Amino acid sequence: MMAAKIPLAEEKTCFAPQAVLEADFARFRGTRFKSESGRFKAAKAEICVPQMVQQGDANVGGAVYQDLMAKIEQSVNAGNDRRVLLDRIFFEVLNEPEFDNAQQWAAVQTQAIAAIRRAAPYHTIIATAERYSGLTNLLTLEPVADPNVIYTFHDYEPFAFTHQGATWTMEQVRPLRRVPYPSSPEDIAAVVSQEQQLIDQHWINSYGLDRWDAARIRSELSFAGKWAALHHVPVYCGEFGVYQAFADPAMRAAWLHDTRMALEEQGIGWAVWDYRGSFAVVSKTNGKATPIPAIATALGLHSQ
To answer: Which domain holds residue 16?
Structure first.
């Protein structure tokens, strides 16, 4: 089953009339993703609260957030009981929270969950750790006092491979091209010279020395499984993917396959980033979206 991550636009959720919100929620029902010869069913829609909370702002329980939750309550219920679409709609507190301080984020998340619970007492909530929902941050997260919560993390490691050439993130990846996966010192030697600064050359050289491959990914992601077992809670990888502009297509597919397999070995559910954007699993021609065969195979996706 596929999960569709549906962000709620702040300008729509906070200020839109009821009819607009009802239309937004209506499009989640029975969502389908087309495949080569059939359809992928989207079993769940993950509703992401917009990133209106900036780093250092602990006022998530304030008027704007409370107003948002009230509108969500009206739209989800829409005249029905409060258990509507329990198996389809999940509420994520915040996508990749930009908080450096774990204690401060924990306080904010606790307030947010309380606000969500007032609007949706029976729906599953998705919680996360600070600093962009990384795996290492998940490992230090204390679960919240709510039994109906799934914990998410995002996985883009090794960043030198998954984000090579990306212009919106750390400077070290911007000049990178043809970064290989798997990695070794021999394979990475030609890439080191793409960096201008010695510190950046050292960073990409370390990627080669780290020898990222399927075994390394399995070892890394096993810690998500260990954290889940330790706390007796479910864990979900809410994002993983490879920026496709400069990555070798076959290597991109290999990384997706290895990561997906490692997650499934740990019993961890997943959602790939993204559907039709710069990390796409489909291509679009003449308005028609078609799954990229190698990527669909890597993800183990089959038509229904």
So the answer is: 2-157+213-298
